[in-house]
Write a structure and sequence with these properties.
This protein has 88 residues and is mainly α. The protein contains three helices and no strands. The chain is flat. The relative contact order is 0.18.
């Protein structure tokens, strides 16, 4: 990836247009405290709410799929940061 000088902004645009979200997996994770646990709970609640709304009519539209994927990826990002911190 040297050709792009580690600038992945063009790839991020392409990924976002197809409903994907990139996030860093390296680093030290997030500090585990009340605020970060509250953020995890909020993201979990958001993901559950969006999923429940999407399945309420027994049909998941393409827009609902994209929204569900985004919310689940947001949740995954926070959960992965917790796991990274706990595994150190």
């Amino acid at each position: 990836m040297r050709a792009c000088n580690n600038d992945f902004s063009a790839l991020d645009v392409i990924e976002s247009r197809i409903g994907r979200t990139a996030y860093a997996t390296g680093g030290v994770g997030i500090k585990i405290d009340c605020d970060s646990v509250a953020a995890l709970a909020k993201e979990a609640g958001d993901a559950i709410s969006v999923m429940a709304e999407a399945i309420a009519d027994d049909t998941i539209t393409e827009d609902e799929k994209r929204t569900c994927i985004k919310e689940l990826l947001d949740l995954q990002k926070i959960a992965s940061s917790f796991l990274l911190q706990l595994n150190q």
